[in-house]
Design a protein that fits this description.
This protein is of the alpha/beta class and about 270 residues long. It is built from eleven helices and seven strands.
C-alpha cells in the first residue's frame, strides 16, 4: 500500500495521523502551524482520502503501512500526533516501534475508547445533510448554523458553533467524509466490536506524551482520555471546557499555544 502523503516544512519530523472519517489534509490546523518549524508528514490512511484500497483490511494493516512510510521517508525517529483513530494508531506505533518514537501528542483519543453518543434520528441525518450542503455553499453562514447546524449531528461534534469551526467542517470534514471508504469503516468498527483496550500496555511507553480532550466529547469521552494519560509514564493532560470531539477546530489558537508550550518544556520530544 503506497499511501498518499501531504508534507510541509523542514526540520524534525512530525507524523500526523487523522481520525475517522478523515484524511491527511484534514489535519491542516496542526500542519500549517507546526510546519513553520518542523517537517510535517500527514498521510491519507489506507481506505481514506486518496489512499484507495479495494479489498478488506484490518486495523493492523494501518501499522504496517505507517512503518513502511517511515522507511520510505528514511525517518529514524519522529514525534507522533494523532487525532481520534490517529491517536490510537500513534500509541500502537509507540508500542511497536519505541526506538522510532520521540513523543506523542494525542488528541481526542483513548487506549480504551468509549462514547456516550445518543441514538441518531432521521431528523438528525436530515438536518446534518442540509447543514453540510449549505456550509459547502456558504461556509460560516450564521443563519445556517443557527437554523440547521445546531439541530444537526454537528451539535455532538462541536460545542462552539462559530464560523471558524464551520469553515473547517465545510473545507475539511465534509470532503474527508465523502472520501472515506466502506472498507475503512468496516475495519474500524470490527476493532471496536472486538473490545479494543490497550490501557494495560501503556506503561511500556516512556516517551513524553501530551493528551488533549474536549470536556463534552460524546465520541471518545474525556474520562477515557484521562485514563489514557494516567496510564502513560510521562504524560500531561489538558481538558478544554465547552468543546467536543472536533475541539481543534473550535479553539485552534489555544490548542496550538498549549502544544507549543509542551514542546518547549519537552525538547526531548523533538530530538533525534
Amino acid at each position: 500500500m503506497h499511501l498518499n502523503v501531504y508534507t510541509q516544512g523542514q526540520g524534525f519530523p512530525i507524523l500526523c495521523l487523522h481520525g475517522h472519517p478523515g484524511s491527511g489534509s484534514s489535519l491542516s490546523v496542526f500542519t500549517n502551524h507546526l510546519s513553520k518549524r518542523f517537517h510535517t508528514i500527514a498521510p491519507d490512511l489506507r481506505g481514506y482520502g486518496k489512499s484507495r484500497f479495494n479489498g478488506n483490511f484490518a486495523m493492523t494493516d494501518h501499522l504496517e503501512d505507517l512503518e513502511r512510510l517511515l522507511d520510505r521517508f528514511k525517518i529514524e525517529k519522529c514525534l507522533l500526533l494523532g487525532w481520534s483513530l490517529g491517536g490510537i494508531l500513534a500509541m500502537e506505533l509507540a508500542l511497536r516501534l519505541p526506538q522510532r518514537v520521540s513523543g506523542l501528542i494525542l488528541v481526542a483519543t483513548a487506549a480504551r475508547p468509549h462514547g456516550n453518543h445518543p441514538p441518531i434520528t432521521w431528523q438528525d441525518n436530515l438536518y446534518t445533510g442540509i447543514a453540510a450542503l449549505l456550509s459547502v455553499i456558504n461556509p460560516g453562514w450564521q443563519w445556517n448554523i443557527d437554523t440547521f447546524g445546531k439541530r444537526s449531528l454537528f451539535r455532538y461534534l462541536i460545542q462552539q458553533h462559530t464560523p471558524t469551526a464551520y469553515g473547517y467542517i465545510s473545507k475539511e470534514a465534509i470532503p474527508a467524509y465523502l472520501q472515506t471508504s466502506d472498507k475503512a469503516t468496516r475495519a474500524l468498527y470490527s476493532a471496536i466490536r472486538a473490545g479494543y483496550n490497550k490501557v494495560g500496555d501503556l506503561n511500556q511507553i516512556s516517551c513524553p506524551s501530551l493528551v488533549l480532550a474536549g470536556k463534552e466529547d460524546r465520541h471518545i469521552t474525556a474520562e477515557c482520555s484521562l485514563e489514557t494519560s494516567e496510564s502513560l509514564q510521562n504524560s500531561l493532560f489538558h481538558c478544554y471546557p465547552n468543546t467536543a470531539h472536533l475541539f481543534p477546530w473550535e479553539i485552534p489558537h489555544q490548542l496550538l499555544n498549549d502544544i507549543d508550550c509542551w514542546l518547549k518544556d519537552n525538547p526531548q520530544a523533538i530530538q533525534s
